[in-house]
Amino acid sequence: HFNANWTGTTSDKVAYDNLPFTPPSSAAWVRLSIQHLSGSQIGFGAGNARFRRLGQVVITIHTQENLGPSQAMQLGDTAVALFEGVKLASGLRFTEVSLSETGIEGGWYRAEMTASFEFDEVR
Predict the structure, then answer these.
(1) Is 1 exposed, middle or buried (0-12, 13-18, 19+ CB in 10 A)?
(2) 81-105: buried (b, 16+ CB within 10 Å) or exposed (e) per residue?
């Protein structure tokens, strides 16, 4: 979903967990992380037991420091629009979406968008 719809930066300015990436020296870039959380059984039955799986997508936005928050927040708004209220054909549903400034770290001004998701498995 992200790869097909992200327009905030070019694809070479997107870092993915556990893949090689060299941050650009001055251009904005983002890191996409998918974190799987706990789940629970929500239905019972032979061959149709339903399990709800939970997780979150975290997009950390990096922009040059000392230029103010506007570019980071614009990219954050782009990320929010990509996930807020979206249900994918696979049945994965994005629920709570948030955007916050996290400040300066390592020479970059940072903001973070978090989108909680859930999906059901039947076994």
Answers:
(1) middle
(2) ebbeebeeeeeeebeebebeeeeee
Q: Residue 88 — φ and ψ, nearest 5°?
A: -85, 160
Q: CB–CB of 14/29 below 8 Å?
A: yes
CA quadruple 14, 20, 24, 25: dihedral sign: positive
Strand-by-strand arrangement of the 108-122 sheet: 14-16, 29-43, 50-64, 108-122, 93-105
In order along its 123 residues, the chain shows pLDDT tens digits of 999 999 999 999 999 999 999 999 999 999 999 999 988 898 887 778 889 999 999 999 999 999 989 999 999 999 999 999 999 999 999 999 999 999 999 999 999 999 999 999 888
- Tokens representing 101 are 């400034």
What pTM was estimated for this model as a whole? 0.90
Q: Which residue has the tokens 């859930």?
A: 118
Give the pair of three-digit tokens for residue 109: 């001004």
Write the CA distances from 56 to 27, 28, 43, 71, 115, integer angstroms.
26, 23, 23, 23, 5
